[in-house]
Write a structure and sequence with these properties.
By secondary structure, this protein is of the alpha+beta class. The protein has 2 domains: 108 residues, no CATH class; 26 residues, no CATH class. It is built from 3 helices and 4 strands. The strands form 2 sheets. Strands 1-2 form a two-stranded antiparallel ribbon. The chain is elongated. The chain starts with a helix and ends with a helix. The model has no long low-confidence stretch (mean pLDDT 85).
Length: 147
Amino acid sequence: MGIFESIDIGGNALRVHGKRIDIHAKNIANLDTPNYIRKIPILNATDDLSFHGLLNTMKEDVFGLGSLPYAQGGVNFSGVVEDPTPGQKIYQPGHPDADENGYIRTSNVNAMVDIADALMAQRAYEANLALVNVTKSMAQKAVEIGR
């Protein structure tokens, strides 16, 4: 794997984990908003890094070309799904969001869950930022050696 591929993977991961942080921040901000439904980000690996996927890649590349393929990793943001957990029903007939029976549904956001998820996303963001910085440092050292 080359330097540019490493930076591309790290940059893509920075964008994905930044979106995760934004989604969890929006959930936390809407903790007390009636009828708000918690959003859950969906992430997927870019390549099939399973043992079966690696064997298939090796069968096609190693035995045909005689060289080991590198497994290019990464993460994709696949979208957002709504949390199916219902919020608590509260009787408030004068509320503008009340249904025909006078009930509103509170937000189904659990602050502790979203804070923990946001911290995990922040740590993943920081790890990928470190990856990009180390790769940049390696490229600068290679240029210095070449002088």
